[in-house]
Amino acid sequence: MIAYNSRFLILPWVKVKFLASHLLGQMAKIISEDWNTLYHHPIYFLETFVDTEKFIGISYQASNWQYLGKTTGRGKNDQTNKVNRSIKAVYGYPLIVNFRTKLCSK
């Protein structure tokens, strides 16, 4: 019920004002219906991780994604409890008002 935005890239030579935030906003409007068509269930929440060593996430902020915090820099399969990758900023975007209820129900 949560979709993860793993890659979002606009090539550096593309110069269109506000293109990134516009695309993110348009994607958020249609993704749940598209997902339902393809996978036969809706999604209620979007998430993404922004590498803070390279980017600040301004496009996500401009398209009303909510900053949720930072990762620990250890990855999902951490065995050492030591930072082994860059710290990421976590952003989320609810697609429906009652997303918490939907995500927490059985």
Mean pLDDT: 88
Q: Can you count the helices?
A: 3
Q: Tell me about the largest β-sheet.
A: 4 strands, mixed
Structural domains: how many: 1
Shape: globular
Helix-strand pattern, N to C?
Answer: EHEHEEH
Strand % is 15-25%
Please give the number of β-strands.
4
Give the strand order of the largest sheet, numbering strands 1, 2, ... along the chain.
1-2-4-3
Give the fraction of residues assigned to helices. 25-40%
- End-to-end distance: 12 Å
Overview of the molecule:
The structure is a single chain. This protein has about 110 residues and is an alpha+beta fold. The chain has a 4-stranded mixed β-sheet with strand order 1-2-4-3, with no helix packed on it. The chain contains 3 helices and 4 strands. It has one domain. The protein has helices at about 20-40, 60, 100-105; strands spanning about 1-5, 45-50, 65-70, 90-95. Helices cover about 30% and strands about 20% of the residues. About 10% of the residues are buried.
Chart the SSEs and their pairings.
Elements lengths: L1 E4 L13 H21 L5 E7 L6 H5 L3 E5 L17 E7 L4 H6 L2
Parallel strand pairs: 1-2
Antiparallel strand pairs: 2-4, 3-4
Give structural attributes.
globular; alpha+beta; 106 residues; 3 helices; 4-stranded mixed sheet
Brief write-up:
With 106 residues, this protein is an alpha+beta fold. The chain has helices spanning 19-39, 58-62, 99-104; strands at 2-5, 45-51, 66-70, 88-94.
